[in-house]
Amino acid sequence: MSTDLPGKLAAQKRSIKEIDGEAPEVAFGCVSSFPRDPADRAPSLRLDAFDPVEDEITATALAVNLDRFLLAYYEPYLAAVDMGDTDSGSGPVLAARFEHFGIRVGLLRSIADRVRQALDGQVTGLHGAVKEILQHTQEQVLAEFDDRVNVNDGTLVETTWEAALTLTDY
């Protein structure tokens, strides 16, 4: 990590003071690296996080329509599910596999249905609907899928890269 990077990350984090009238819950700069330790033959993952409390004097307040924001957030998941090889039954998660890449992508079926409605023009109320869906399906998803579905946002991303990641590439 270059010596000036922490300052740049802190300045970037402090540049947004609120989104749709509320301060961001989480905003921090993060750098992961594998620094070499001469005493250790295998490098270890190092994570540096920078989370300054104060805002810049010229920090920006973003006026964001949360319905449109969630549409932009979930639309790529839905597009991926529609493009991949269907890999879901009638359960709560709609998913697709991309075998060539070793990836499975999905999202809660109820969110997918509501996002499709938004794509058809019913954008208003998407944020509230998704919030309610996530509150009511969290226990069901946890019981059926353990930690494979992100219950914070209802998305699923699985990889089968373990073999590839453990190969020596030199």
Task: Describe the overall structure.
The model has no long low-confidence stretch (mean pLDDT about 80). The protein has about 170 residues and is an alpha+beta fold. It has one domain. The radius of gyration is 20 Å and the shape is flat. It is built from five helices and nine strands, in the order αββββαβββααββα.
What is the strand and helix layout of this fold?
Elements lengths: L4 H10 L1 E4 L9 E5 L12 E5 L9 E3 L3 H18 L1 E2 L6 E6 L4 E6 H11 L6 H20 L3 E2 L4 E5 L2 H4 L5
Parallel strand pairs: 1-4
Antiparallel strand pairs: 2-3, 5-6, 6-7, 7-9, 8-9
Order of SSEs: HEEEEHEEEHHEEH
Major sheet strand order:
5-6-7-9-8
Largest sheet: 5 strands, antiparallel
Q: How many distinct folded domains?
A: 1
Tertiary shape: flat
Overall mean confidence score, pLDDT: 80
User: What is the rounded Rg?
Assistant: 20 Å
Strand content is 15-25%
- Class derived from helix and strand content: alpha+beta
* Assembly level: single chain
Count the beta strands.
9
| Poorly predicted regions | none
Helix count, per DSSP? 5
In helices, the fraction of residues equals 25-40%
Distance between the termini: 22 Å
